[in-house]
Amino acid sequence: MSSSLNERDQTLADRLIEVRRNLHREPELSYEEFRTTKKLREWLAQAGIRILDIPLATGLMAEIGQGSGPVAAIRCDIDALPIEEQTELPFASVIPGKMHACGHDFHTAVILGAALLLKEREHELPGRIRVLFQPAEETGHGAESVLASGGLKDVDVIFGLHNSPELPTGSFGTRTGALTAGVDRFEITVKGVGAHAATPENGVDTIVTAAQMITMLQTVVSRQNTTLEPVVLSVTRINGGFTWNVLPETVELEGTVRTYNEEIRRNIPVQMTRIIEGIAAAAGAEAKLHWYPGPPATVNHGEWADFTKKVASQAGYEVHDIPPQMGGEDFSFYLQQIPGAFVNIGAGPNHPLHHPRFDVDEAAILPAAEYFALLAEKALRKLQETAES
Ligand code: NI
Fold it and tell me: For residues 59 and 51, what is the distance between their CA atoms, to the nearest angstrom?
Protein backbone atom coordinates (compact mmCIF):
# COMPACT_ATOMS: atom_id res chain seq x y z
CA MET A 1 0.00 0.00 0.00
CA SER A 2 1.56 3.32 -1.05
CA SER A 3 2.10 5.79 1.75
CA SER A 4 2.56 8.98 -0.26
CA LEU A 5 -0.53 10.19 -2.05
CA ASN A 6 -0.74 12.18 -5.26
CA GLU A 7 -2.65 15.45 -5.24
CA ARG A 8 -5.96 14.00 -6.45
CA ASP A 9 -5.87 11.18 -3.88
CA GLN A 10 -4.88 13.60 -1.12
CA THR A 11 -7.87 15.80 -1.99
CA LEU A 12 -10.23 12.83 -1.78
CA ALA A 13 -8.59 11.51 1.40
CA ASP A 14 -9.04 14.93 3.05
CA ARG A 15 -12.63 15.15 1.85
CA LEU A 16 -13.50 11.71 3.26
CA ILE A 17 -11.83 12.48 6.59
CA GLU A 18 -13.93 15.66 6.71
CA VAL A 19 -17.06 13.59 6.01
CA ARG A 20 -16.17 11.13 8.77
CA ARG A 21 -15.54 13.94 11.27
CA ASN A 22 -18.76 15.70 10.30
CA LEU A 23 -20.74 12.50 10.97
CA HIS A 24 -18.74 11.76 14.11
CA ARG A 25 -19.59 15.16 15.59
CA GLU A 26 -23.35 14.61 15.20
CA PRO A 27 -24.11 10.94 15.88
CA GLU A 28 -27.69 9.71 15.60
CA LEU A 29 -29.18 6.54 17.08
CA SER A 30 -30.91 3.76 15.15
CA TYR A 31 -33.94 4.86 13.09
CA GLU A 32 -33.24 8.50 14.06
CA GLU A 33 -30.61 9.07 11.37
CA PHE A 34 -32.53 11.95 9.72
CA ARG A 35 -29.72 14.50 9.73
CA THR A 36 -27.19 11.89 8.57
CA THR A 37 -29.52 10.89 5.71
CA LYS A 38 -29.98 14.53 4.72
CA LYS A 39 -26.21 15.09 4.62
CA LEU A 40 -25.70 11.97 2.51
CA ARG A 41 -28.39 13.10 0.07
CA GLU A 42 -26.60 16.43 -0.32
CA TRP A 43 -23.16 14.90 -0.80
CA LEU A 44 -24.43 12.37 -3.34
CA ALA A 45 -26.47 14.99 -5.20
CA GLN A 46 -23.44 17.33 -5.36
CA ALA A 47 -21.54 14.53 -7.10
CA GLY A 48 -24.41 13.97 -9.54
CA ILE A 49 -25.09 10.49 -8.16
CA ARG A 50 -28.61 9.16 -8.71
CA ILE A 51 -30.56 8.67 -5.47
CA LEU A 52 -33.21 5.99 -5.72
CA ASP A 53 -36.79 6.46 -4.61
CA ILE A 54 -36.92 3.71 -1.97
CA PRO A 55 -39.40 3.85 0.91
CA LEU A 56 -36.94 4.18 3.81
CA ALA A 57 -37.56 6.67 6.65
CA THR A 58 -33.82 6.92 7.33
CA GLY A 59 -30.89 5.65 5.29
CA LEU A 60 -30.96 5.65 1.51
CA MET A 61 -29.93 3.93 -1.67
CA ALA A 62 -28.13 5.38 -4.67
CA GLU A 63 -27.09 3.89 -7.97
CA ILE A 64 -24.19 4.30 -10.37
CA GLY A 65 -24.05 2.86 -13.89
CA GLN A 66 -26.78 1.91 -16.31
CA GLY A 67 -28.20 -0.78 -18.53
CA SER A 68 -29.58 -4.21 -17.94
CA GLY A 69 -26.28 -5.78 -16.86
CA PRO A 70 -25.54 -7.25 -13.45
CA VAL A 71 -26.10 -5.34 -10.21
CA ALA A 72 -23.57 -5.31 -7.35
CA ALA A 73 -24.38 -3.70 -4.01
CA ILE A 74 -22.01 -2.14 -1.48
CA ARG A 75 -23.40 -1.44 1.97
CA CYS A 76 -22.47 0.55 5.04
CA ASP A 77 -24.36 1.24 8.26
CA ILE A 78 -24.93 4.80 9.49
CA ASP A 79 -26.18 4.67 13.09
CA ALA A 80 -24.43 5.48 16.38
CA LEU A 81 -24.68 4.22 19.97
CA PRO A 82 -26.09 5.52 23.28
CA ILE A 83 -22.59 5.99 24.77
CA GLU A 84 -21.02 9.11 26.28
CA GLU A 85 -17.87 9.81 24.27
CA GLN A 86 -14.61 10.11 26.21
CA THR A 87 -12.09 10.54 23.39
CA GLU A 88 -11.41 14.28 23.74
CA LEU A 89 -10.97 14.42 19.95
CA PRO A 90 -11.46 17.91 18.44
CA PHE A 91 -14.41 16.48 16.47
CA ALA A 92 -15.88 14.48 19.39
CA SER A 93 -19.64 14.09 19.62
CA VAL A 94 -21.49 17.30 20.48
CA ILE A 95 -24.63 15.29 21.31
CA PRO A 96 -24.68 14.19 24.95
CA GLY A 97 -24.94 10.45 25.47
CA LYS A 98 -24.50 9.56 21.79
CA MET A 99 -21.35 8.44 20.03
CA HIS A 100 -20.10 6.78 16.86
CA ALA A 101 -18.41 4.15 19.02
CA CYS A 102 -18.61 1.36 16.44
CA GLY A 103 -17.04 3.30 13.55
CA HIS A 104 -20.15 3.46 11.39
CA ASP A 105 -18.99 7.02 10.56
CA PHE A 106 -15.86 5.37 9.11
CA HIS A 107 -17.96 2.87 7.13
CA THR A 108 -20.14 5.67 5.74
CA ALA A 109 -17.11 7.73 4.64
CA VAL A 110 -15.62 4.63 2.96
CA ILE A 111 -18.76 3.75 0.99
CA LEU A 112 -19.40 7.39 0.05
CA GLY A 113 -15.78 7.53 -1.16
CA ALA A 114 -16.28 4.37 -3.21
CA ALA A 115 -19.41 5.93 -4.75
CA LEU A 116 -17.49 9.09 -5.70
CA LEU A 117 -14.74 7.01 -7.32
CA LEU A 118 -17.22 4.80 -9.18
CA LYS A 119 -19.10 7.86 -10.42
CA GLU A 120 -15.94 8.96 -12.25
CA ARG A 121 -15.90 5.61 -14.06
CA GLU A 122 -19.67 5.36 -14.55
CA HIS A 123 -19.49 4.95 -18.35
CA GLU A 124 -17.04 2.08 -18.11
CA LEU A 125 -19.11 0.02 -15.67
CA PRO A 126 -20.60 -3.15 -17.19
CA GLY A 127 -23.74 -2.91 -15.05
CA ARG A 128 -25.03 -1.02 -12.05
CA ILE A 129 -23.74 -0.50 -8.54
CA ARG A 130 -26.29 -0.09 -5.78
CA VAL A 131 -24.90 1.97 -2.91
CA LEU A 132 -26.68 1.28 0.35
CA PHE A 133 -26.50 3.47 3.45
CA GLN A 134 -28.34 1.28 5.94
CA PRO A 135 -30.08 2.56 9.09
CA ALA A 136 -30.33 0.90 12.50
CA GLU A 137 -27.64 -1.79 12.33
CA GLU A 138 -27.25 -1.59 16.10
CA THR A 139 -30.82 -2.81 16.62
CA GLY A 140 -29.95 -5.96 14.66
CA HIS A 141 -32.98 -5.37 12.44
CA GLY A 142 -32.17 -2.41 10.13
CA ALA A 143 -31.29 -4.78 7.29
CA GLU A 144 -34.76 -6.30 7.49
CA SER A 145 -36.38 -2.92 6.85
CA VAL A 146 -34.07 -2.46 3.84
CA LEU A 147 -35.02 -5.88 2.45
CA ALA A 148 -38.71 -5.11 3.06
CA SER A 149 -38.32 -1.88 1.03
CA GLY A 150 -37.67 -4.02 -2.07
CA GLY A 151 -34.63 -1.96 -3.02
CA LEU A 152 -32.32 -4.97 -3.27
CA LYS A 153 -34.58 -7.28 -5.29
CA ASP A 154 -32.46 -7.27 -8.46
CA VAL A 155 -29.05 -7.34 -6.73
CA ASP A 156 -26.71 -10.17 -7.84
CA VAL A 157 -24.02 -9.77 -5.20
CA ILE A 158 -23.62 -7.70 -2.03
CA PHE A 159 -20.57 -6.66 -0.02
CA GLY A 160 -20.29 -4.95 3.36
CA LEU A 161 -17.58 -3.94 5.79
CA HIS A 162 -16.76 -3.45 9.40
CA ASN A 163 -13.67 -1.71 10.66
CA SER A 164 -11.49 -3.81 12.92
CA PRO A 165 -9.68 -2.20 15.87
CA GLU A 166 -7.64 -5.41 16.21
CA LEU A 167 -6.25 -5.35 12.68
CA PRO A 168 -3.70 -2.65 11.85
CA THR A 169 -4.33 -0.25 8.98
CA GLY A 170 -3.35 -1.88 5.71
CA SER A 171 -4.67 -5.27 6.71
CA PHE A 172 -7.83 -7.02 5.65
CA GLY A 173 -9.67 -9.99 7.11
CA THR A 174 -12.52 -12.25 6.20
CA ARG A 175 -13.38 -15.93 5.97
CA THR A 176 -15.62 -18.39 4.17
CA GLY A 177 -18.64 -19.48 6.21
CA ALA A 178 -19.81 -17.98 9.49
CA LEU A 179 -18.04 -14.72 10.36
CA THR A 180 -20.36 -13.37 13.09
CA ALA A 181 -22.83 -15.25 15.30
CA GLY A 182 -26.59 -15.50 15.45
CA VAL A 183 -27.60 -13.24 18.35
CA ASP A 184 -30.78 -14.00 20.28
CA ARG A 185 -32.06 -12.59 23.56
CA PHE A 186 -34.25 -14.36 26.09
CA GLU A 187 -36.21 -13.56 29.23
CA ILE A 188 -37.52 -16.12 31.69
CA THR A 189 -40.20 -15.40 34.26
CA VAL A 190 -40.53 -17.77 37.19
CA LYS A 191 -43.73 -17.51 39.18
CA GLY A 192 -44.23 -19.21 42.55
CA VAL A 193 -45.90 -18.33 45.84
CA GLY A 194 -44.37 -15.73 48.10
CA ALA A 195 -43.80 -16.64 51.74
CA HIS A 196 -42.04 -15.59 54.91
CA ALA A 197 -38.42 -16.67 54.70
CA ALA A 198 -38.83 -18.49 58.04
CA THR A 199 -41.64 -20.69 56.65
CA PRO A 200 -40.66 -21.63 53.07
CA GLU A 201 -43.01 -24.63 53.23
CA ASN A 202 -45.91 -22.17 52.93
CA GLY A 203 -44.73 -20.88 49.55
CA VAL A 204 -43.13 -21.95 46.28
CA ASP A 205 -39.56 -20.62 46.30
CA THR A 206 -38.74 -18.90 43.00
CA ILE A 207 -35.16 -18.08 44.06
CA VAL A 208 -34.16 -21.72 44.53
CA THR A 209 -36.11 -22.69 41.39
CA ALA A 210 -34.43 -19.98 39.27
CA ALA A 211 -31.01 -20.99 40.61
CA GLN A 212 -31.57 -24.56 39.43
CA MET A 213 -32.66 -23.29 36.04
CA ILE A 214 -29.52 -21.19 35.64
CA THR A 215 -27.33 -24.18 36.43
CA MET A 216 -29.18 -26.62 34.22
CA LEU A 217 -29.42 -24.18 31.30
CA GLN A 218 -25.66 -24.63 30.93
CA THR A 219 -26.33 -28.25 29.90
CA VAL A 220 -27.95 -26.91 26.71
CA VAL A 221 -24.38 -26.10 25.67
CA SER A 222 -22.48 -28.90 27.39
CA ARG A 223 -24.90 -31.85 27.06
CA GLN A 224 -27.61 -31.17 24.50
CA ASN A 225 -25.69 -29.88 21.49
CA THR A 226 -22.65 -31.14 19.65
CA THR A 227 -19.31 -29.91 20.90
CA LEU A 228 -18.31 -29.37 17.25
CA GLU A 229 -20.59 -26.34 16.79
CA PRO A 230 -19.98 -23.30 19.03
CA VAL A 231 -22.84 -22.19 21.29
CA VAL A 232 -22.79 -19.57 24.05
CA LEU A 233 -25.63 -19.32 26.57
CA SER A 234 -25.22 -16.54 29.12
CA VAL A 235 -27.67 -15.54 31.83
CA THR A 236 -26.85 -11.88 32.34
CA ARG A 237 -29.57 -10.57 34.67
CA ILE A 238 -31.39 -11.93 37.72
CA ASN A 239 -34.17 -9.91 39.32
CA GLY A 240 -36.07 -11.21 42.31
CA GLY A 241 -36.80 -10.31 45.87
CA PHE A 242 -36.69 -7.01 47.73
CA THR A 243 -35.65 -7.79 51.28
CA TRP A 244 -33.94 -10.33 53.54
CA ASN A 245 -36.85 -12.14 55.13
CA VAL A 246 -39.39 -12.59 52.32
CA LEU A 247 -39.33 -15.17 49.54
CA PRO A 248 -40.47 -13.37 46.37
CA GLU A 249 -43.37 -14.50 44.25
CA THR A 250 -41.51 -13.94 40.97
CA VAL A 251 -37.98 -14.00 39.62
CA GLU A 252 -36.92 -12.76 36.19
CA LEU A 253 -33.89 -13.94 34.28
CA GLU A 254 -32.48 -12.46 31.08
CA GLY A 255 -29.63 -13.40 28.79
CA THR A 256 -28.35 -14.16 25.33
CA VAL A 257 -27.64 -17.15 23.11
CA ARG A 258 -24.99 -17.05 20.37
CA THR A 259 -24.78 -19.66 17.60
CA TYR A 260 -23.44 -20.16 14.07
CA ASN A 261 -25.55 -23.12 13.01
CA GLU A 262 -29.14 -22.23 12.07
CA GLU A 263 -30.59 -25.65 12.95
CA ILE A 264 -29.00 -25.58 16.40
CA ARG A 265 -30.26 -22.03 16.80
CA ARG A 266 -33.83 -23.15 16.12
CA ASN A 267 -33.59 -26.04 18.63
CA ILE A 268 -32.24 -24.04 21.55
CA PRO A 269 -35.48 -22.34 22.65
CA VAL A 270 -37.15 -25.76 22.57
CA GLN A 271 -34.42 -27.24 24.79
CA MET A 272 -34.52 -24.24 27.14
CA THR A 273 -38.31 -24.45 27.45
CA ARG A 274 -38.07 -28.14 28.38
CA ILE A 275 -35.59 -27.32 31.14
CA ILE A 276 -37.39 -24.38 32.66
CA GLU A 277 -40.85 -25.97 32.48
CA GLY A 278 -39.51 -29.24 33.89
CA ILE A 279 -37.77 -27.56 36.81
CA ALA A 280 -40.76 -25.30 37.45
CA ALA A 281 -43.12 -28.30 37.48
CA ALA A 282 -40.86 -30.19 39.90
CA ALA A 283 -40.93 -27.19 42.24
CA GLY A 284 -44.64 -26.48 41.84
CA ALA A 285 -43.88 -23.17 40.13
CA GLU A 286 -44.63 -21.82 36.66
CA ALA A 287 -42.07 -20.59 34.16
CA LYS A 288 -42.20 -19.02 30.75
CA LEU A 289 -39.52 -18.37 28.14
CA HIS A 290 -39.74 -15.22 26.04
CA TRP A 291 -37.53 -15.44 22.97
CA TYR A 292 -36.41 -12.35 21.01
CA PRO A 293 -34.65 -13.39 17.82
CA GLY A 294 -31.88 -11.08 16.61
CA PRO A 295 -29.80 -11.33 13.46
CA PRO A 296 -28.70 -14.80 12.29
CA ALA A 297 -25.05 -15.70 11.76
CA THR A 298 -23.31 -13.82 8.94
CA VAL A 299 -22.39 -16.65 6.61
CA ASN A 300 -20.07 -15.58 3.80
CA HIS A 301 -20.46 -17.32 0.46
CA GLY A 302 -17.18 -19.08 -0.28
CA GLU A 303 -16.81 -17.97 -3.88
CA TRP A 304 -17.34 -14.32 -3.02
CA ALA A 305 -15.28 -14.44 0.19
CA ASP A 306 -12.36 -15.73 -1.92
CA PHE A 307 -13.03 -12.98 -4.44
CA THR A 308 -12.90 -10.24 -1.78
CA LYS A 309 -9.53 -11.61 -0.62
CA LYS A 310 -8.12 -11.78 -4.14
CA VAL A 311 -9.11 -8.17 -4.85
CA ALA A 312 -7.78 -7.10 -1.43
CA SER A 313 -4.35 -8.50 -2.14
CA GLN A 314 -4.40 -6.87 -5.61
CA ALA A 315 -5.22 -3.58 -3.83
CA GLY A 316 -2.16 -3.97 -1.63
CA TYR A 317 -3.79 -5.18 1.58
CA GLU A 318 -2.20 -7.73 3.84
CA VAL A 319 -4.92 -10.39 3.74
CA HIS A 320 -5.83 -12.50 6.79
CA ASP A 321 -8.17 -15.43 7.24
CA ILE A 322 -9.80 -14.34 10.49
CA PRO A 323 -11.58 -16.58 13.01
CA PRO A 324 -15.35 -16.24 13.47
CA GLN A 325 -16.57 -13.80 16.14
CA MET A 326 -19.39 -14.27 18.69
CA GLY A 327 -20.70 -10.73 18.10
CA GLY A 328 -23.60 -10.03 15.76
CA GLU A 329 -24.07 -8.13 12.48
CA ASP A 330 -27.35 -7.67 10.64
CA PHE A 331 -25.63 -7.91 7.22
CA SER A 332 -26.44 -11.59 7.81
CA PHE A 333 -30.03 -10.99 6.65
CA TYR A 334 -28.78 -9.93 3.19
CA LEU A 335 -26.57 -13.00 2.89
CA GLN A 336 -29.57 -15.25 3.57
CA GLN A 337 -31.07 -13.94 0.30
CA ILE A 338 -28.22 -12.56 -1.81
CA PRO A 339 -24.76 -14.05 -2.52
CA GLY A 340 -21.86 -12.02 -1.17
CA ALA A 341 -19.41 -11.51 1.65
CA PHE A 342 -18.73 -9.31 4.65
CA VAL A 343 -15.16 -8.17 5.31
CA ASN A 344 -13.12 -6.52 8.04
CA ILE A 345 -10.91 -3.55 7.24
CA GLY A 346 -8.04 -2.88 9.63
CA ALA A 347 -8.18 0.59 11.21
CA GLY A 348 -6.36 -0.13 14.44
CA PRO A 349 -4.84 -0.84 16.79
CA ASN A 350 -7.41 0.85 18.99
CA HIS A 351 -9.87 0.50 21.86
CA PRO A 352 -12.51 -2.18 21.23
CA LEU A 353 -15.78 -1.47 19.43
CA HIS A 354 -18.40 0.25 21.64
CA HIS A 355 -15.70 1.58 24.01
CA PRO A 356 -16.18 5.27 25.03
CA ARG A 357 -12.61 5.95 23.82
CA PHE A 358 -13.01 4.04 20.56
CA ASP A 359 -11.44 5.70 17.49
CA VAL A 360 -10.32 4.69 14.00
CA ASP A 361 -7.18 5.37 12.00
CA GLU A 362 -8.39 7.84 9.37
CA ALA A 363 -5.51 6.83 7.06
CA ALA A 364 -7.50 3.64 6.45
CA ILE A 365 -10.46 5.50 4.87
CA LEU A 366 -9.17 6.26 1.36
CA PRO A 367 -7.61 2.81 0.73
CA ALA A 368 -10.88 1.18 1.84
CA ALA A 369 -12.89 3.47 -0.46
CA GLU A 370 -10.60 2.58 -3.37
CA TYR A 371 -10.91 -1.08 -2.46
CA PHE A 372 -14.73 -1.05 -2.45
CA ALA A 373 -14.82 0.78 -5.79
CA LEU A 374 -12.46 -1.81 -7.26
CA LEU A 375 -14.32 -4.73 -5.67
CA ALA A 376 -17.70 -3.58 -6.98
CA GLU A 377 -16.42 -2.99 -10.52
CA LYS A 378 -14.54 -6.30 -10.63
CA ALA A 379 -17.60 -8.11 -9.28
CA LEU A 380 -19.67 -6.68 -12.15
CA ARG A 381 -17.07 -7.93 -14.65
CA LYS A 382 -17.05 -11.36 -13.05
CA LEU A 383 -20.87 -11.52 -13.13
CA GLN A 384 -20.88 -10.38 -16.75
CA GLU A 385 -18.35 -13.06 -17.74
CA THR A 386 -20.37 -15.74 -15.95
CA ALA A 387 -23.55 -14.59 -17.73
CA GLU A 388 -21.82 -14.73 -21.12
CA SER A 389 -20.16 -18.10 -20.69
NI1 NI B 1 -20.78 -1.88 14.13
Answer: 11
